[in-house]
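Standup notes
- HV: blocked on the assembly model, inputs below
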Amino acid sequence: MTIDSMSTFDPAPRINRPSPELEVATFPTAWVVQLVDGDAVEPDAVVERLHEATVTITDRRISAIDGEDAWSWLVADLQLVVHGADEPWTIFVVPEISDFGVAVPASQDADFRRVLAALGVNVMVQRRADPQLPPPLVALPLPPDRDGLSEMPTLEVHDRPRRGGAQLEHSGALAGIDARNISAWFGSHMVLDRVSLDMPAGHVTALIGPSGCGKSTFLRILNRMHEMIPSASMAGEVLVDGHDLYDPNRKLTDARREIGMVFQKPNPFPAMSIYDNVLASFRLTGVKASTDVKDGVVESCLSKAGLWKEVRDRLRQPGGGLSGGQQQRLCIARALAIQPRVLLMDEPCSALDPTSTRRIEETIMELVSEVTIVIVTHNMQQANRVSDRCAFFLAEQGTPGVIVEHGPTDAMFGSPQDPRTLDYVMGRFG
Ligand SMILES: Nc1ncnc2c1ncn2[C@@H]1O[C@H](COP(=O)(O)OP(=O)(O)OP(=O)(O)O)[C@@H](O)[C@H]1O
Ligand SMILES: [Mg+2]
């Protein structure tokens, strides 16, 4: 969802007023869907209906709206649109998010697909379980009188230039990330209240605090994932290397490329090979590279993630066959393949055993020379071991989350200024 379409509730959010958009089509009885199992382009993907909604397509965005709940995807940010081969669902892929989409009634599906294809986005049909069946009807001619849509459907995944041209080298200097006066809401429920935190380049910043105080919400705001959540809104500023992450002229795709994310639960594509998992974002963005370049990226990212030696002889085996700790390092390698300048990690070790945890911590400490890291952890020893800066979040008695204290990790653990910080780091609550 984009900021300007998120919610009718208006807690003084930053709003980018759009210039008039050309409405192309409306599907009044549709659904928002979520990919709940598998990969949208694989035959066994399972998609479930989440919510009834009216889907509107303009020349600029696809929106699904039901009262206060609103989802929307900017056409310019879509990396790929995946249609179900035999069912009327469509998943929209934007960087790091490939789970959400819409479904229109089967009777309107052909029209829906036609309109989408005419927007010129990359369209792919889910791979079919039975290749003997005839190909699905997506290459339909345009309807005769669609204003503003004059191109024929594009069914190829295009070769899009990457930032910095065809080179697949690291993008350059480290970037700091500075969050200023961040507030966040889910509907009318305020969960963060004017939180400011400077996360300097080349450091590991740990976010600590009890459950529900807004750490994950804050992290999602740092790479524009918050806006994908139904009814979410925010206020404040995020500066990456001094540049506004929410600048309306900045593409969401570019923001996501600069800021990678690793989640609590390792989420590699299980049926996809280890090699292809590392390069998954290449495939989703339609980047084409020579085998040599791809081999180089796979080796370098797996090495940086501390996994290369363990998997170099089994690169063609499925990612799902790795242990939990290895899968998490594979996800780190996958996040590194887009050459982020900042890596966000939300409790990356909470599902792992101590040995795997230790291995990931070593990886974090090795990576920080080339990517700024922000990590959420409930493990105080881990925060102490891996971070050099730390911020303590707290939401007291139903109030929104705030940062009670932040600073160098040694000071936060050794001589905190606020008694609540001391209680928390000593394990007395939370
Ligand atoms: N999708 C959502 N819709 C509505 N409310 C949400 C949503 N996600 C989080 N919240 C609420 O926002 C608040 C902050 O949640 P958040 O997940 O950011 O906390 P957290 O500090 O990461 O917690 P934990 O340590 O348990 O992961 C909580 O009150 C939570 O219930
Ligand atoms: Mg969380």
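- HV (later): unblocked. The mean pLDDT is 81. The chain has two domains: 3-125, 177-425.
- Next: hand off to the docking folks.
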